[in-house]
């Protein structure tokens, strides 16, 4: 699709590489992975993506990564999601988990945790934020102090001892380490919220059962239990009580990337609907020549194009603006998430009974279009972020 937004040459090259990988490696496995048991994980597909460099996109070139920034990462995620949103989320969640170490600026942490992503075998990371009674509150700065029953961290000499449970952690079942949010004992409200890098093979960490999800089935989400887990003080990100500072930057990257994934889902739905409407003859002429269907396809196309431009702008801002903007990424995610749902539903209405069958892929897109409206900011959370920016409370 044409765009006035000119991508840097290295991002264009990456886009083409990822598109080829998605079509030749990911697509043949999409249906099988969607029908597989909830705890089945396709390491072979991830391994081939790792060989392409998809687990080191945001690691700077001087540290051995591809260094394409949030923009390159987002473009890659759209290409993956246009074939399989689950696969895109596996890579996207791992890249966002890495941001804890990247943003720390701590060479010691970077030297300990980043080289694993440069090796021969794929290694995944994750963020561990959500809990039973603390989800959206942790994404709204003014509400964070009200989050109930947040995991606790107790200082013990040169270590911290973490106790609590994290829920719905993307990649939690297969990741090597997590950026874990916990509240320091003795602190009121959000003043003690701190981010720790925790290897998930640490004593006291237990991985629960994989969630049997409606969509994103090739990406495993699980519960993580922390029972008196000892974490060295050098694994603290930014310092004690700085979790919201980290989250402010990470959320803006995440929203740009999720907006790209939703754009890919919408694009896939549009492609299926377009192809079907070009082949299906109704009333003596192709379906797309009927005015009502043509109007649907035109509006679907407009939504995909608008969603793409919004996430490209948001990703560019995340790479180049300090402080990281709240408004652009929130608008991009709000629009793209809604566009994915609407375009997928319209594709179902155009394709009809075939769309209701698994082999055509439309019903999978409908299921997965709803997922992005839950993680990394619900529409309600995004609305608060956007209006906060409109009224000058946030950048």
Automatic annotation (TrEMBL):
Cofactor dependency: FAD
Oxidoreductase listed as a keyword: yes
A GO biological-process term: butyrate catabolic process
UniProt domain Acyl-CoA dehydrogenase/oxidase N-terminal: residue ranges: 9-118
InterPro entries associated with the record: Acyl-CoA_Oxase/DH_mid-dom (IPR006091), Acyl-CoA_Oxase/DH_mid-dom_sf (IPR046373), AcylCo_DH-like_C (IPR036250), AcylCo_DH/oxidase_C (IPR009075), AcylCoA_DH/ox_N (IPR013786), AcylCoA_DH/ox_N_sf (IPR037069), AcylCoA_DH/oxidase_NM_dom_sf (IPR009100)
Domain of life, source organism: Bacteria
Domain Acyl-CoA dehydrogenase/oxidase C-terminal: 252-387
Family annotation (Pfam families): Acyl-CoA_dh_1 (PF00441), Acyl-CoA_dh_M (PF02770), Acyl-CoA_dh_N (PF02771)
Keyword terms: FAD, Flavoprotein, Oxidoreductase
GO MF annotations in UniProt: acyl-CoA dehydrogenase activity; flavin adenine dinucleotide binding
Limits of the Acyl-CoA oxidase/dehydrogenase middle domain: 126-229
UniProt xrefs under SUPFAM superfamilies: Acyl-CoA dehydrogenase C-terminal domain-like (SSF47203), Acyl-CoA dehydrogenase NM domain-like (SSF56645)
Family designation: Belongs to the acyl-CoA dehydrogenase family.
Name the UniProt record assigns to this protein: Acyl-CoA/acyl-ACP dehydrogenase
């Amino acid at each position: 699709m044409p765009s006035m937004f000119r991508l840097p040459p290295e991002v264009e090259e990456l886009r083409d590489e990822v598109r080829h990988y998605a079509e030749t490696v990911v697509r043949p496995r999409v249906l099988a992975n969607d029908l597989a048991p909830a705890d089945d994980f396709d390491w072979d597909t991830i391994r081939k993506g790792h060989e392409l460099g998809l687990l080191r996109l945001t690691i700077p070139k001087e540290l051995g990564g591809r260094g394409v920034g949030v923009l390159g990462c987002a473009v890659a995620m759209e290409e993956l999601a246009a074939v399989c949103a689950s696969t895109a989320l596996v890579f996207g969640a791992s890249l966002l988990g890495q941001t804890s170490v990247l943003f720390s600026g701590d060479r010691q942490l970077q030297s300990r945790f980043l080289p694993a992503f440069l090796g021969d075998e794929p290694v995944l990371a994750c963020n561990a934020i959500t809990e039973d009674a603390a989800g959206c509150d942790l994404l709204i700065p003014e509400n964070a102090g009200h989050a109930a029953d947040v995991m606790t961290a107790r200082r013990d000499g040169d270590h911290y001892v973490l106790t609590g449970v994290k829920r719905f952690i993307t990649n939690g079942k297969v990741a090597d380490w997590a950026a874990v949010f916990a509240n320091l004992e003795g602190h009121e409200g959000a003043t003690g919220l701190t981010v720790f890098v925790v290897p998930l093979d640490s004593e006291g960490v237990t991985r629960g059962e994989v969630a049997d999800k409606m969509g994103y089935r090739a990406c495993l989400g699980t519960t993580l239990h922390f029972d008196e887990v000892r974490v060295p003080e050098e694994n603290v990100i930014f310092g004690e009580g700085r979790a919201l500072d980290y989250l402010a930057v990470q959320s803006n990257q995440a929203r740009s990337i999720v907006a790209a994934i939703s754009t890919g889902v919408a694009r896939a739905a549009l492609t299926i609907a377009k192809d079907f409407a070009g082949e299906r003859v109704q009333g003596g002429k192709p379906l797309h020549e009927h005015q009502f269907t043509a109007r649907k396809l035109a509006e679907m196309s407009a939504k995909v194009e608008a969603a793409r431009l919004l996430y490209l702008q948001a990703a560019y801002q995340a790479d180049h603006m300090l402080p990281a903007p709240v408004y652009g990424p929130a608008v991009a995610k709000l629009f793209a998430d809604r566009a994915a749902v609407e375009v997928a539903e319209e594709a179902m209405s155009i394709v009809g009974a075939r769309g209701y069958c698994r082999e055509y892929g439309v019903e999978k897109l409908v299921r997965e279009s709803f997922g992005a409206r839950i993680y990394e900011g619900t529409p309600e959370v995004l609305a608060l972020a956007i209006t906060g920016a409109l009224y000058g409370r946030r950048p």
